[in-house]
Amino acid sequence: MPLRIVQSKQNSRLKELRAALARPGSGERGVAGIEGPHLVAEAVRSGLAIDTVFVAQGSERLLDGLGIPDEVEILVLPQDILASALATETPQPIAALVRPPLWDWDHMLGLRRNTVPLILVLAGLQDSGNLGTILRSAEAFGATGIVALNGTVSAWNPKAVRASAGSVFRVPYLTSTAEDCIPRLHRAEATIFATLSRAAQEAHQANLARPVALIIGNEGNGVPGELVVRADSTITIPCPGPVESLNAAVAASVLLYEAARQRAAQPSGLRTARAVR
Known about the structure:
Elements: E1 4-5, H1 12-22, E2 32-35, H2 37-45, E3 49-56, E4 73-77, H3 79-83, E5 94-99, H4 105-108, E6 118-122, H5 128-140, E7 145-148, H6 158-164, E8 173-175, H7 178-187, E9 191-195, E10 201-202, E11 212-216, H8 225-228, E12 233-236, H9 248-264
Helix pairs in contact: 5-6, 5-9
């Protein structure tokens, strides 16, 4: 694969990487920055379009075995110049500019794979580490997708991407408004559950094997009241210990596990469904 040596911080591609990492919301509109050999390998494995790979001088061996397509531009830079564009306290010796996958509501509702919808709706989630963990759990437990409502941190925030361990490349993810999202879910005959810390139906008693959407609220304030009243029901995770509430990522992961457990117990013919557009 051809390598091109770059010696300037003013290189246009390096500027683009710096901007993508500094303004991660742009990833939802075109290009995103990732860093580290694991994430670059995951991006290749996931079939993402890769614009440019950046590697520090002396670390070219990291390119071996990644399977980067021949047409991808590869820039070799001094370590300090590459580090000047990166977001981590301990900069990685390899990074890339990638094109995020394009998802739509057919992916979200399971129509592309003919599976029963299991959707997470994030209402103002602010911690990027929580979001990354939720993405990873969503992939692990078979969620059909995640909808991020207004005020939710970008999935392409560098911390969220790292915490997702590559799941952000594969889990269908859309940004939306409650005004658009809630009616779509109802038309798809999905039962919408708002998660509460108490005084709600316990998770193991709820039917999560059917088409469902689980609303996960802000870390400090929970699900907004206006969304609770628009939900079909409320759900909680019973906690025998003396804690007031669970971390948002932990709560989402427990609910996804319970949904996966219930679905695994269903006859195979009931694990697929056609959602209503």
